[in-house]
Each structure stands twice: as structure tokens, then as C-alpha cells.
Amino acid sequence: MEIPRYGSGALADVVPSLLASLDVPGMTDVIGVPAARRVCLLLIDGLGWELLRAHADTAPFLASLSGKPITAGFPSSTATSIAALGTGLPTGEHGVVGYTFETNSLLLNALGWNHHGAPHHTDLRPTAVPEEVQPRPTIFDRATAAGVAVRVVAPYQQEGSGLSRAALRGAPFQGVFAMGDLVSATLDALRSADRVFCYAYHADLDALGHFYGPGTEPWLLQLSFIDHVAASIAARLPTDALLAVVADHGMVTLTEEDTVDYDTEPLLQAGVRLLGGEPRVRHVYTEPGATDDVLAAWQQVLGDRAWLLRRDEAIALGLFGPSVATHVYPRIGNLVVAARGTAAVVRTTVEARLSGFIGQHGSLTSAEQLVPLLLTS
């Protein structure tokens, strides 16, 4: 079990450390960042530390950078990690506790900001207002108030999304369509003022990892392309600029014999009110008084294929950070189930597309938790 190192080496520490290099008041550098006037943070979705090490020959530029592994945070999932970067807070404070979680008596999908499991797409932005689901000021707000020009460069369809509003508000959004304008828009942002922080995001490596599996030929080709993107940004940086590269999580390849289908296993369903999370990490919301029986049933079915923790046990272990805010506490399942090895709890009926992914993430293994923090010298 790789416990996130909040406060000394987790994604929530990255942007505060980078902003400390820009002399933003109240920011502390805990990861060792050189001083700069312009900083670009490039987030490569799905590039775990172990994957980068295993395929360094495919990404020679990234592999050449000064770097070390840090922890993603828990769950090791995109929405949670982006919220950690955008707020500078651990999961228990920003409250995006997974890919899906209960809020306002509904199961919120934090990437689509829709009612997860509903037969039709239901936009929850009007009712689960992103600024209320995640009410803390973003770290971009704080940097802007300190006179830093903050910019977000990300796929155009993410502009105004629920997650962008919850985690990345406080900065102008530049939507991009492909890798070419990702590089161009990032460089334009870095040239836009004397003190700049630019957050840039690339999603496609993660997508190919889900569909084909990490380390496959399509994934490796995409890794080589994003390596060229990072090298292109670095080669064109202003002289007083720094490029930092991170990922939001790693990834594992599932094995069929370790996969359990919740939708066809009555023992797992008994006493469960809602099932959140994703295949590698589940929030199990139980009926009143049923938690003990549900825990026993899940232990019987899963055995040693998962860590099974009661909500308070998971909090006491520090999985969600040093503290959990009052409004965040009920979003955590009565049981937290984190897969070990290559196991998963899928839902082939309710989550048919998600359940079909070969590559998955979210849990506490080193393959999922450890992500690179790379800096240009």
C-alpha cells in the first residue's frame, strides 16, 4: 500500500512549490524548485513513474530531465488529481474524492459532471454547482491576486466543464485541438507577461492506455509523440522560464481472472445503497446498519485481491490527507475498497464502457500512485 505523501511529495504540493519559485506569498516549496519568472506545468495524463522508467527509450527527452517520483494522492484518478493540482489541497479538503462519488443524494461523475449510471446524460452543473461542490479558492485565484498571470491550456471541450469550474477556475482558459496548438498556446501564455504560471494538459496517453493497455504499440507511439511535445516546449522556453512535467496517476493492465463483476454478484450487492468510484477503487455506500455485513460479504468474494477499509480506517491511515472537511466526510464510502495486483470490481451492465478498459487506475499500488515530477535545469 503506497500511502500518499501529502505535505512532502504529493500532487497537492506541486503547484504551491512552483508558485513559491515565483515569489507568491504564502506558498512553500517542499519539492525543490529553482527560482523562475515564468513556469509551465505540463500534465501528461496517465504517465506513471514506473511506466516512464520502463519505457525511457521511447521518451528520451522526458527521461533525460531531472526528476523523482511523487505520489498522486488518493484515489489515483484524474478528477481527484486535477483538483489537487488546482487547489493545492489534499483530497479530504478539496472534496473530489473520486471518479464518481455521492453528493446531493446522487452519484456524481466528476469528469462528465453528470448523474453517473442514469440512462441518459444529465448535466448536474445547475444543481451540483461546481463552485459549491468544491468551494475552496483555487490556487490560481491566489496566484492571480499576487500579480501572476495564470493561464490554462487544455482541450477545448473542457472549457466551462464542471471539473474545470471546480478545480481550475481563476485563470483564462485557452482551448486547444491537437498537440501542435498545445505547444503554440503554451508558449504564447509564457510570453504573455513578466511573471507567468501556465497549466497545460495532454489527455491522449491515458486514453490509449485505457483502450489498448499501457506499454502496447499504440501507447508507446503516443508516448513518443508527447515526448516530442515536451521537448518542443522546452526548446522554445524564454530564458527565465521553467518547465515542470507531472502525471496524474499511473496505470495497470487488468487480468480477467482477477476481475469481479458487481452487476452479476449478488453477495456484493446485498446491503449496498450506491456504488461509487471506479474499477480499481470503490466507494461502497451501505444501507443503514449494513456496513458490517457488507464488509464480510466483500471480504468473502474478494479475499486478498483488495484492501477493504471502513471509512474511518481509511481516513485514519491518511489516504485522504491529514484532515477531512465536514462536507467531504459523507462523500467517502462507508467502505473503501482499493484493488491490489491486477484486480478490479467492474460493472458490465451499468458501466459497460468503463468496464471494458484494459488499462485502469485509482488504487494504492506503486504502479498507480507513483508519478514523475520532472524539471528542466
Give an overview of the whole structure:
The chain has 377 residues and is α/β, with parallel strands linked by helices. The protein has 2 domains: 11-95 and 124-251 and 365-375, Alkaline Phosphatase, subunit A (3-Layer(aba) Sandwich), CATH 3.40.720; 256-360, Gyrase A, domain 2. The chain is built from 16 helices and 18 strands. It has helices at 14-21, 49-54, 60-64, 78-87, 91-94, 130-133, 139-145, 162-167, 179-190, 204-212, 217-235, 266-269, 291-302, 311-316, 352-355, 366-369, and strands spanning 38-44, 66-71, 100-103, 106-109, 114-115, 149-155, 173-176, 196-202, 241-246, 252-253, 259-261, 272-275, 281-286, 306-310, 335-339, 344-346, 359-360, 370-375. The strands form 5 sheets. The protein has a 7-stranded mixed sheet, with helices on both faces. β4 and β5 (114-115) form a beta hairpin. It is globular and about 60 Å long. The mean pLDDT is 97.
What topology emerges from the helices and strands here?
Elements: H1 14-21, E1 38-44, H2 49-54, H3 60-64, E2 66-71, H4 78-87, H5 91-94, E3 100-103, E4 106-109, E5 114-115, H6 130-133, H7 139-145, E6 149-155, H8 162-167, E7 173-176, H9 179-190, E8 196-202, H10 204-212, H11 217-235, E9 241-246, E10 252-253, E11 259-261, H12 266-269, E12 272-275, E13 281-286, H13 291-302, E14 306-310, H14 311-316, E15 335-339, E16 344-346, H15 352-355, E17 359-360, H16 366-369, E18 370-375
Parallel strand pairs: 1-8, 1-9, 6-7, 6-8, 11-16
Antiparallel strand pairs: 2-18, 3-4, 4-5, 9-18, 10-17, 12-13, 13-15, 14-15
Helix pairs in contact: 9-11, 10-11
